[in-house]
């Protein structure tokens, strides 16, 4: 293989290739820098990957070129890399997903040009039991992440009224995602999807000029679509601390509710956009803001639209 080198990580040899290839042309950010970022962010990233089937979003020719999703872990994987079979109802067979549970496995996957890492909301040991619920706030042009911040703050307030703690992160692209940790063995995707859908409809009723809960794309112009449908066992969301394949090497970054509010009050979208160096600095000073999502146990209340509106 051209331009190949071998890196020893935790006493395992990981083959790396084409390290000088530019993955982000606008900033001349190379594959070597992508790998370096993932090595440095690994201490906080790996706990969020452990035990979760990993879908690789691969960009062989860089972030702005064509990509493909890979669920089936490649047959040429090293024998030390763990996989997990997950039944696919649509394919009527199990798919063997990669598990990135340690640094060698993570870097091996990233070397496949998996710029983005997408994970299940549940762990492989109990794939039909989500450990968290997500609201994916997606702005329809000309709406921006500042409008997402407004909707996220309303969502946060309603959740607090139900005694639910929630944790925001940027999508690393143009939106915001709000997570509710659950971490119980009794919750199902049917329950989380119904809860998310009901709350999306509540916000839509409260502010129909800004919020849409329906799936049709032609309804989203200038509004924030609350994607409740992500709460499904066969779907994945971008993992916290994952790079995104955009013009610059932006990262899906955990933020505080104070930061979300500041971006909204100042109408400043740049306050909710972070590149690799910024994220590494934030972790150095703030730690893992998403750590509670791993362990905090919460139960969902019954929502009734009439009671909330």
TrEMBL record:
InterPro entries: LigD_pol_dom, MtLigD_Pol-like, NHEJ_LigD
CDD domains: MtLigD_Pol_like (cd04863)
Domain DNA ligase D polymerase, residue spans: 30-290
Pfam families hit by this protein: LigD_Prim-Pol
Protein name per the record: DNA polymerase LigD, polymerase domain protein
């Amino acid at each position: 293989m051209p331009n190949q080198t071998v890196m020893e990580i935790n006493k395992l040899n990981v083959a790396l290739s084409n390290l000088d290839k530019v993955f982000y042309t606008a900033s001349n950010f190379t594959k070597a820098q992508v790998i370096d970022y993932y090595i440095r962010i690994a201490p906080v990233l790996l706990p969020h990957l452990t035990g979760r089937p990993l879908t690789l979003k691969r960009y062989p020719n860089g972030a702005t070129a064509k990509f493909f999703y890979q669920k089936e872990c490649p047959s040429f994987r090293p024998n030390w890399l763990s996989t997990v079979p997950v039944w696919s109802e649509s394919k009527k067979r199990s798919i063997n997903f990669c598990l990135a549970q340690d640094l060698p496995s993570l870097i091996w996957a990233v070397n496949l040009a998996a710029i983005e890492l997408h994970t299940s909301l549940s762990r492989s040991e109990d794939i039909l039991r989500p450990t968290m619920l997500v609201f994916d706030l997606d702005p329809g042009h000309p709406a921006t992440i500042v409008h997402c911040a407004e909707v996220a703050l309303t969502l946060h307030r309603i959740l607090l009224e139900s005694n639910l703690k929630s944790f925001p992160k940027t999508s690393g692209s143009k939106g915001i995602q709000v997570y509710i940790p659950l971490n119980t063995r009794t919750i199902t995707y049917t329950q989380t999807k119904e809860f998310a859908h009901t709350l999306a409809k509540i916000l839509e009723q409260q502010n129909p000029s800004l919020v849409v809960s329906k799936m049709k794309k032609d309804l989203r112009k200038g509004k924030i679509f609350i994607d409740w449908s992500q709460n499904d066992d066969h779907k994945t969301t971008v993992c916290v601390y994952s790079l995104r394949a955009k013009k610059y090497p932006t990262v899906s970054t955990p933020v505080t509710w104070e930061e979300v509010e500041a971006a909204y009050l100042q109408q400043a979208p740049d306050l909710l956009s972070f590149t690799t160096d910024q994220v590494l600095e934030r972790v150095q000073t703030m730690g893992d803001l998403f750590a509670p999502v791993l362990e905090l146990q919460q139960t969902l209340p019954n929502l009734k639209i009439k009671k909330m509106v």
